[in-house]
Each structure stands twice: as C-alpha cells, then as structure tokens.
Give the backbone structure.
Amino acid sequence: MRYPTLPTMLRLAASVLALAGIVASGVARADNEYKGYTLRVKLIGGVQYEALYTRIPLWEQQTGAKVEIISRKSHFELDRELKQDIASGHIDYCVSSNHTNFSAQYPIFRDLKGLFPASYLAAFSPSLMKASEINGHLVQIPRSVDIEALYYDKTAYEDPANQAAYSKQFGETLAPPKNYTEFTQQAKFFTKAPNFYGTQFPGKDEAITGTFYSLLIANGGQLLDAKNRPAFNSPIGVKTLNWFVDLYRAGAVPKGVPSYVWDDLGNNFAAGKVALDLDWPGFASFYNEPKTSKLAGNVGVVPAPLGAGNKRPGWSGSHSFSITKTCDRPEVAASFIEFLTSRDSQMVEARLGTIPSRTDAQQAVVKEFQDKHDVFMANAINVFSTAARQDAFTPPRIQQWDEISNALWPELQKALIGDKSSQQALDDAAKKVSDIMQDASD
Amino acid sequence: MRSNLRDSSAVPALVPVSHESVALPFKLLLPAFFSVAIVVVLPLLFSLYTSFTSYRLIEPETIWHFIGLRNYLRAFANEDFWAAFGRTVLFLTIALNLELVLGLGIALLLNEVTKGQRILRTIMMFPMMFSPVLVGFQFKFMLNDSTGVINHLLQTLFGLQSTIPFLVNANSALASLIAAEVWNSTPVFAVILLAGLMALPKDPIEASKVDGCTPLQTFRYVTLPYLMPFIYIAMTIRSLDVGRAYDIVRIMTNGGPGGRTELLWTMVGRIAYDDSHMGYANAIGYVSVLVSVLFTLYFFRKLNAARKHMGPA
C-alpha cells in the first residue's frame, strides 16, 4: 500500500478545502453543475428590487441552469397570485419571493433547514433568522430588512431662533427626541400649519396598524396575548392610540394623515414640510438626493425614540425568498437563493440604501460609504442596521395577520377622525379580532 | 313537399323547419355556446356555489365545507355591509348622472365643431385611455393636503389660510372619488352620445327650426328624444362598468377613513384576497351583482320605452 506524500496530502487538503468552500458558499458552484435545468421563479417586482435581478445571468453562467421568471409583480399582486396558486393547487415553480410578516399565509413553502450550510446561515442576524421561521420551520431566507428610524430636518434643529425658543419654553437643548415625551413636545413646537408640521404618520391600511402596533410594543403593551386573544384594548393600548389622536387633533400632523401611506410621508418630508419623520431605510437616499428632496444635505437619522416601556418601536419585516414543497430540485433552488443573498449580491442592493440581512454586508456597506466620505449614508445604514439587530420584532406571524390588520385600521381611523373614542374604537376592533381568531380555531 | 315549398315562398314565417336545417345553425353556434359556457357560466356557477361554503383561498379543502346561507346572513347582519351597499348605490347614481350631463355637453359641443373635430375627439378620449390605477394615484397626489396642487392653488390664488384634506372630510372624500371616476369615464358617455348625434336624422331638426322652435326647444323636443336610446345604452354600459372604480377607491382611500368611502367592491376585494374569505366575498359579490342587474333592468326598460316613443324610425 502506498501512502501519499506530503505535497500530495497538501494538494488533497487544499482540494478538500476548496470543495468545502464551494459547497459552503453555495455561490461558486462547480461549473455547469445544473446544466439543462430551468428554474422557475416568482419574484417581487418594482424599481427598488430590480437591481438584484441583474445578477441572475451570473448565476446562470456559473451553474449552467436557466432562470425563468414567471411572475414579477408588486408585493400585493404577488400575494394575490400566491393565494390563487394555493387555491388552484397549481404550484409549478421552485422559488418565490416572500415576506416574513405574511409568510404564515402560504403553506406551500418547505422547511429550509438542512438545505443550506450552517456557515451561510450564520451570516444572518439571529433575530432575523428567528423571524423567518413559522412554527419552528425556517420557511424563508431574508433578502433585506426593514425597520424604522427617525429622520429629522436639520435646518429646523439648527435654526438659532428655534433653539432659543425651545430652550426658553422647555428649559432644554433642542436635539432629536430620545423618548416619546420629547417627540410629542417637539412635534407641537415645530408645527406652523399649514406650511410646516412637527411630524406625520401613516393613517390607513396595514401602515397604521403596524405603526400603532410598533408603538404599543414600545409602550410595553401587547397586540395579542399568549392564547392569541386581543390584548390591544388595554390601558396601554388606549394610551398608545391617544398619542396619535392627540397629535392629529392638535394639528401637529397634516390634516390629510388618515389618507396617508408611505409615499405621502416620503413626499411630505422631501418637500421640507415636516420636522420629524419615523420612516423606513428605503427613503434615506431619496431624502438626501438633491433631485428628489429639498432637504438634501440637511437630513439627520437617529434611532427611533424610546417608548414608555423602555423599548423602541421596532416593527420590522424582511423581504425574503422561499422554496416550494413541490420543487423537484430544491438544491438548485437553494443555490439560487444563496447566490441572491450572498454578500456580493446584498451589496448591490445595499449601495442603493437597502439594509442587507447579512451582518457582514451591513458592515461592509457602512465601510464603503465611509470610504467614499458619504457620511449621511454611512450613518443611516449604521442606524438602521443597529436597530434591525437590537430592536426588531415582527407582527404576530400567524395566518390571520392580514385579517387582524384589516379589522384594526378602520377602527384606528375612526378614533383619529373623532367618530369614536380611543377606548370604543379599540374595543370594537378587539371584538372583530376575537371573532377572527374564534373562526380560525373552529 | 312541393306544395310546402310553394307555400313557404309566399309565407316564410309558416315554413315548417326541418330537423337538419335547425341542426346546422345550432352546430355553427355550438362553439360560441361552448365558449360562453366555459368563460361565463362555469365561473358564475362556481362562484355562486362557493358563496354557500366557507371557502378560503389559502385552505382549498374548505371549498367542500357547505354552510348554506350563513355567508349571506352574515352579510345582511353586518352594518358595514349595508353602509357600503347604500354608499355604492349613491356613488353609482351620482357618478352616472354627472357623467351623463358632462358627456352630453361635450358631445353637443363637439357636434357643432366643423373643423378639427377628429383631433378634438381624440383629445376628449384621453382620460379613458388612462388606467384607473393611474387615475387614482394622480387624483390622490393632486388632492394631497400638504403637497397637492389643488390645495396649493387654493392657498396661492384664493388666499386660503389652511388646507382642505379632501380625502378625509366626510363629504369631500366620496366626492373626490366620484370626481376621479367621472374624469376617467365621462368620455365613454361623450363618445356614445356623439355617435348618436351624428346618426340623428336632419329633417326633424330642420322642420323644428322652420316651425320657429328655439334652439332649446329643438333640443328638448327633437334631439333629446332621438338621443334617449343612446343615453340608456351608455347608462347600462357604465352602470355595469363603474365597478372599475375599485382601483380608484383602492388607491385613493381604500374605503377609509373609518369606512367613509367603503364601497361594495373594495369590501369584496379586501375580504376575498387580503382576508382570503372567498366564500363570504362571493356572497357579497352576488348582492352587488343584484344591484347592477337592477340598474340594468331599469335602463333597459327605459330604453325600450324610448324606442317605442320614437316609433319605427
């Protein structure tokens, strides 16, 4: 029997390590490993998502597989399409875009545990991976992360007249708010309606449900109890809703707030009409771009203020990728997802202001912006990434989330516009949510 | 047989039709019947059936869970449903009448134009070329209280010191949706009525002028009666079509705030897809179909009456 020589052993070890590296990275697969296979995928569409898809030909080149994008729609259209697929039982694709906050509705996706190397999964923040599970099953790999932070208009804060007036009125230095008492105080202080408002918030659809939910948790409240019964009509819930109602009635937010969703908030802040804007990372580059924003160069980003429960409003969610249970080549699908969520791929989106779900990409993009002396983006990405790691929580990841949200937001609006008291609105919503959960358990 | 043929040439209506001659047209029409059955009848029957089940899109097996009239009873016991029902009828009534008045006005003006009518006709049709989704976004941005052009104009031109939240106030919210719908769809009325005006016989109009009728009298007693069938056809088409307003409402207010602009279509869309309760949504859908059918029957009765009034001409 011949024993291998040292050089042979070294070469062998190097080959094994290289192979392990290939398997572990999942990105640099062996050339043409999947030649002849066509991977059918449904991807979320929209301007902010398209840059990533320009990398797909590279994966095709590496693996020899072809990608057929059979659907490329907005989140809401994709949601409908997935539900129709489930209803018809016609699942003829392997990969689909998904979202952590809505994924409980789609029973068509498989558990991904065991499909991906541990080293790859370890690159994501643990809280994010936990949020990607439904009933203990890892049903998605997060593509990015969304969480709110506080944008503020530096011109309003750095104005000597404002500083003097604020100091005189409250005996404090004017600085971005650290808690909701300061937030409310400053929102009212800055308001000079109809030309300038202290703050704003979304007032319809899931946007107001989520914003209410986020502050409810920050204030130490609960949406549902351990048995999934409504718990939001508690005194903390009423106090939370009163915060929105108080700002609306005081005129510290625009009158049109009950009809606002994110694009309205974005346009208002970019138009220089609002001092404080609790908003998503996707707006960072929009707000600081001279072509789209009057505030370019004068935007600050700080962590969201602390609620009464000493928590930050960390309502969060991640766009993600899932693999269907009917997929005939899950390993190919896994390779595709690994590629789209690799560090290099995430950097493509991160450079545009998206917060990567991988911690290594989060750090790398901050460094890249620092190297380019883009202080604003480096700080923004850092603030949002830190919030994603420390403060993030999703809505209850249950099938009924959409339905609960649809029961809640019209009642929250009724309190805002004065049709009901906060307590009445929350009690009525709680009754509807109880019925929903009762129906679900029947 | 020979005598039959001879008789038939004299009185065609009494021809005893042979089995073969019936079969041929029937066979020729069969593909059409089949297509209609597949495209229209089957989905209708399917949705009617599901309205008696607890069918949820994300739980396909629930399609077999028959619950009788429970969805309908649930809808009828739901105050929000009745509010949306009433609002939908109001929306339809106001939108259709406004579209009629504006469409008729545009058609009458265009009919008087002798030069460049084609270009004007094309320009007039621009709004209906926009998708309702786009129209919804346009109006939403224009009516925005903070950055919208309407409030800006009111402030700069008329010195308004505050802003008007058009999409929030109790009356202006629904009015804003109607405005968007009317803007989008008035050209449909205008086109149909312009076609009616162009097809109008000239003799009665000239005769009325000779008889000394004023332009208003000519319009009231000659032009309008001739136009009535066209008006009812347009009304029928639009009453069925106005469900397109779903997109506009979805984008501009999504039924809010606090249900102030909720229509049956937005309610159905939300229950069917967001909440996945397709069975319940179909039950509400069938009630809204009933509204459309009633409107259609009404307009068809009016159409027949107008045609009778006009006589064989």
